[in-house]
TrEMBL record:
GO terms for biological process: 'de novo' pyrimidine nucleobase biosynthetic process; pyrimidine nucleotide biosynthetic process. This is Dihydroorotate dehydrogenase. The gene is pyrD. PANTHER family: DIHYDROOROTATE DEHYDROGENASE (QUINONE), MITOCHONDRIAL-RELATED, SLL0744 PROTEIN. It comes from Rhodopirellula baltica (strain DSM 10527 / NCIMB 13988 / SH1). Keywords: Flavoprotein, FMN, Oxidoreductase, Pyrimidine biosynthesis. InterPro entries: Aldolase_TIM (IPR013785), DHO_dehydrogenase (IPR050074), Dihydroorotate_DH_cat (IPR005720). Its EC number is 1.3.3.1.
Length: 359
């Protein structure tokens, strides 16, 4: 179903699916993740009608805000000094239109609107968070980019820098702040604890990572952005388990690989409060959200729980164990079988005509 097609049905959310995220009560545990679709009023209307409990706007980039600041005094050098490129505004609307988008969506949207920022260093540009809050954002998701560019900077230095950045943002606004992080931490439990100590209300696990490649013609590395592949929930589940072991109270959103209701249920059993869906909506339209919501509802009912909150309360809260048990979880499946599952699909060597007859 096309996002821009007429969406006649409106999904009435059952009260049994109410959940909490970042201190906000949501009518559904399925959240539309950060992407350009959430800047479009009609797309948002269809997404919310399909059952989304909240929407996350695409991130405003550090480079965009810095360009706006610098061009007031150095209009000719602003682009070079900031790293800004005009196409960035096509992604999220630009710094001025972004604020108007927040205000517009708050006027038509019945669910929380979560603004987003993406950056790797502290500075005056973080003041933009206050403008987002003033425009009406219900919460802020900060996409922490590690930006490792100094070979002498240790992992402790990087984590301290990221935490200091989040601390500064948290001191600027009253609305709850979530940190969206990557999987590239030696001890995710420790990072979750550190972020909680500087005031984050939740974690988004994980930021979508681009695909790196090398051009054999140009003999140079390249970066491509792709949709999250289906059947890629495993790494997300591991991250949720690790982070939840470090903090039983922090809000956690599963992000990057939730493509169906089974993925969503697994993520909540692992410890997620909500699941963010993006790639599935690009593939199947708003019906992807409706299908996931319906699947969660059916699972809760078949599990004989009255509400989603009852179901989540019955889920194990501490999957982590001591060194022996963690090692066993790794080694046991490795050594138990002689044959290993191959997830690569088998491509048929047979061909056929236009009528499906094999030749």
């Amino acid at each position: 179903m096309s996002l821009m097609s007429i969406f006649s049905g409106v999904l009435t959310m059952p009260s049994e699916l109410i959940t909490s995220y970042l201190g906000m009560q949501l009518e559904s545990p399925v959240v539309m993740g950060a992407c350009p679709l959430t800047t479009q009023s009609e797309a948002v209307r269809q997404i919310v009608a399909a059952g989304a409990g909240a929407i996350v706007l695409p991130s405003i980039l550090q480079e965009q805000v810095m360009h706006r600041m610098i061009k007031a005094t150095d209009p000719f050098g602003a682009i070079e000094r900031s790293g800004y490129q005009p196409q960035q505004d096509k992604y999220n609307g630009g710094t001025e239109a972004y604020l108007r988008t927040i205000s517009r969506l708050k006027g038509i949207c019945s669910v929380p609107v979560i603004a987003s920022m993406n950056g790797s260093s502290a500075g005056q540009w973080l003041q933009y968070a206050k403008e987002m809050e003033s425009a009406g954002a219900d919460a802020l998701e900060f996409n922490l980019q590690q930006a490792v560019f100094d070979s002498k900077e240790t992992s402790n230095d990087i984590e301290a820098r990221m935490c200091d950045l989040i601390r500064q943002v948290r001191e600027l606004v009253v609305i709850p702040v979530a940190a969206k992080i990557s999987q590239r931490y030696t001890n995710l439990s420790s990072m979750a604890t550190q972020l909680r100590q500087v005031g984050v209300a939740g974690l988004v696990l994980f930021t979508h990572m681009p695909q790196w490649d090398v051009s054999t013609d140009r003999m140079h590395w390249t970066i491509n952005w792709e949709l999250s592949p289906t059947n890629s929930i495993g790494g997300i589940l591991e991250g949720i388990v690790r982070a939840r072991a470090g903090d039983q109270a922090i809000s956690i959103a599963a992000s990057g690989g939730v493509s169906n209701s089974e993925d969503a249920i697994k993520a909540m059993i692992a410890g997620a409060d909500v699941v963010m869906v993006t790639s599935a909506v690009y593939r199947r339209g708003p019906d992807a959200i409706r299908d996931i919501v319906d699947g969660i509802e059916r699972h809760v009912e078949s599990s004989r729980f009255r509400t989603l909150q009852d179901f989540r309360a019955a889920c194990p809260r501490d999957h982590a164990g001591d060194e022996k048990s963690v090692r066993l979880e790794y080694i046991d499946p490795l050594t138990r079988k002689q044959a290993y599952f191959d997830p690569t699909p088998v491509v048929s060597q047979q061909t056929g005509d236009s009528f499906g007859h094999q030749t």
